[in-house]
Write a structure and sequence with these properties.
Structural class: mainly alpha
Number of strands: 6
Distance between the termini: 53 Å
Radius of gyration: 25 Å
Shape: globular
Number of helices: 17
Helix content: 55-70%
CATH architecture of the largest domain: Orthogonal Bundle
CATH class of the largest domain: Mainly Alpha
Order of helices and strands: HEEHHHHHHHHEEEHHHHHEHHH
Strand order of the largest sheet: 1-2
CATH topology of the largest domain: ABC transporter involved in vitamin B12 uptake, BtuC
Number of domains: 2
Length: about 425
């Protein structure tokens, strides 16, 4: 594109920005009066114009043979040479990097600058990674668009709260039962949608999620309705993390002869959730490499060809919904144990959209990309919390930038290839 075309393109972008920004930031409501602050809208339009023009100039320069394009190629040459190393060496380096990263994550609670708030946010990130792994099975591997995944999340959380209330179940006892109940809900959802695809499947799953939320809201005698239910905190071999335990309970600090500190509970919860998240990532990796994982990918690529190969598409779909829901149920139990209280407002459609955004932004079927996306989506709003209402604007702009920059996700899944040699028959 020549310079005139770039300027014209930047003007079009600025015109669209003017239509969007002037009514939003150019008009300020003050009770019953409206004040015009057009300079704010003009500044936003100018930023869009300059940014679009600079991006066009940068793309034009990189497309050329010399200048910035040659400099970029020279900068990328060592990376390409490193990527040409044998696969065994790359796997060894990757394993070493993962080991160092895990040691750093395990050491976070013991660092001097770590706060209880940071540990709580990182534990919440572990929960979202686990949920994203479950939805990654359904959407990323099997290619089934599920907009009601939060229903399994809610089933796990409420299963834990109800079992603890009526049967005195502990956190550790509720994890397998919550996972089993959520898996049953996933199997029940899978049967009606066996013949549905695309938009129809999305609408049915969306309706399923809303049905679960409405049941939780209206079944007041069982679920507590909008008032919610309490959930017990995780314990360490029966030791509770509280200033004073109930009759018959022993507190963590009394057992070890330590002064009471609420930091012990945050440290324990974070380490436990980190361990469970790693187990979930490992299980997802193993499932993806197993024949069932290959069957999910075949179903995603072409269901007709999948049937022609003799793969039972009914079993494959049900297994995807069931195993994905299992991850959601475990995530619900972890969420209830972390917060200590749940109500239906925590399981609305926005949660399903957030988890789906993590899967899409990270790269459908990818593990590393989904983990990075979950960390970014969970931590980014907290980092920009001091900006007040504008933090969601920054969050949205970051998501738009990522989808423009990497439309296939942060890290696309690469298919393994086998180099063979032709032999004469």
């Amino acid at each position: 594109m020549n310079l005139r075309s770039l300027v014209k393109d930047a003007c079009v972008a600025a015109g669209i920005a003017a239509v969007l920004f002037f009514p939003i930031v150019g008009l300020v409501l003050d009770r019953a009066t409206v004040s015009f602050q057009l300079q704010r809208g003009a500044a936003a339009v100018a930023i869009v114009f300059a940014g679009r023009l600079l991006l066009g100039l940068a793309a034009r320069g990189l497309a050329g043979r010399g200048g910035a394009g040659a400099a970029l190629q020279a900068w990328l040459r060592p990376l390409r040479e490193r990527a040409a190393r044998p696969a065994a060496a790359l796997r060894l380096h990757a394993r070493g990097l993962v080991a160092v990263l895990l040691m750093l994550l395990a050491a976070v609670p013991f660092l001097p600058f770590t706060s209880n708030y940071l540990l709580h946010v990182m534990a919440q990130t572990c929960v979202y990674v686990l949920l994203a792994m479950g939805l990654n099975i359904v959407v990323g591997l099997a290619g089934l668009l599920d907009l009601g995944f939060v229903a399994f999340y809610a089933v796990g959380a409420y299963s834990f709260a109800l079992l603890a209330k009526h049967l005195d179940f502990s956190f550790w006892m509720a994890i397998p039962l919550g996972a089993a109940l959520a898996a049953g809900a996933g199997c029940a959802l899978g049967f009606p949608v066996l013949r549905m695809h695309g938009d129809y499947l999305a609408i049915v799953t969306l309706g399923f999620g809303e049905i679960i939320r409405m049941l939780l809201t209206n079944l007041v005698p069982i679920t507590g309705g909008p008032n919610g239910l309490p959930a017990p905190r995780p314990t360490l071999f029966g030791l509770v993390f509280a200033a004073q335990g109930k009759p018959g309970q022993t507190t963590f600090h009394e057992f070890f002869g330590l002064p009471y500190s609420p930091s012990y509970r945050y440290m324990f919860v974070y380490l436990v959730y980190l361990l469970l998240m790693l187990v979930g990532v490992w299980v997802f990796h193993r499932l993806r490499e197993m024949p069932i994982g290959r069957a999910w990918e075949a179903l995603r690529e072409d269901e007709t060809a999948c049937k022609a190969l003799g793969i039972n598409h009914t079993t494959v779909k049900l297994s995807a919904f069931t195993l994905g829901a299992t991850f959601g149920g475990v995530g619900g139990v972890l969420f209830a144990g972390m917060e200590g209280f749940i109500n239906p407002s925590s399981f609305n459609f926005l949660e399903s959209a957030l988890i789906l955004s993590i899967v899409v932004l990270g790269g459908m079927g990818s593990i590393t990309g989904v983990v990075l996306a979950a960390v970014g989506i969970t931590l980014l709003p907290e980092v920009f919390r001091e900006f007040g209402n504008f933090r969601m604007l920054v969050f949205g702009l970051a998501m738009v930038f990522i989808m423009i920059w990497r439309p296939g996700g942060l890290l696309r899944v690469t298919r393994r290839s086998f180099a063979g040699t032709d032999h004469a028959g």
